[in-house]
């Protein structure tokens, strides 16, 4: 999962809230998703979204 680095890094509880949302959506499969800080995540997210739209 890609998240804009400044939001993920500087906003309190963002990581925890993302993890809670993933648990609500995926249940036990949420453990398979790893969130990391990546400066430039916006570009990566856009690339993933574009690839999914084409598939």
- Provide a count of the helices: 3
Segments where pLDDT lies below 50 for 5+ residues? none
Q: How much of the polypeptide forms β-strand, as a percent range?
A: under 5%
Which bin fits the share of residues in helices? Answer: 55-70%
Keywords:
55 residues, mainly alpha, 0% strand, flat
Would you spell out the secondary-structure blueprint of this structure?
Elements: H1 5-10, H2 14-26, H3 41-54
Explain what you see.
By secondary structure, the protein is mainly α. Helices cover 60% and strands 0% of the residues. The chain has three helices and no strands. It has helices at 5-10, 14-26, 41-54. The longest helix is centred in the C-terminal third of the chain and has 14 residues, at 41-54. The mean pLDDT is 82.
Report a brief summary of the structure.
The protein has 55 residues and is an all-alpha fold.
């Amino acid at each position: 999962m890609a998240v804009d680095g400044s939001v993920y890094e500087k906003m309190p509880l963002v990581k925890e809230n993302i993890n809670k949302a993933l648990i609500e959506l995926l249940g036990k499969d949420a453990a398979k998703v790893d969130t990391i800080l990546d400066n430039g995540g916006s570009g990566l997210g856009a690339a993933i979204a574009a690839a999914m739209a084409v598939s």
